[in-house]
Amino acid sequence: MKDYIKGFAIFAALTIGGLFGLGFCVGIIMGITGNADQANHLEQAVWFNALIFVSMPIIAFFAYKFSVDKIFK
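^ thats the sequence. predicted structure below, dont judge the formating
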């Protein structure tokens, strides 16, 4: 049972970390291009929500694959 809890904790941490990293990269790109003033309303932007919607399953898949490979093998 401990392995399942560890695996889920690693999966959750990697998923949240991946989404944080994606948001960090978007913030850096917005800062470099001079759109930093629009960052306050980014959660209402359609393109950002679509980016998160598309990237979340990809990040979660690789986080799950990594956690299963490291914990259960």
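The chain has a mean pLDDT of 87.
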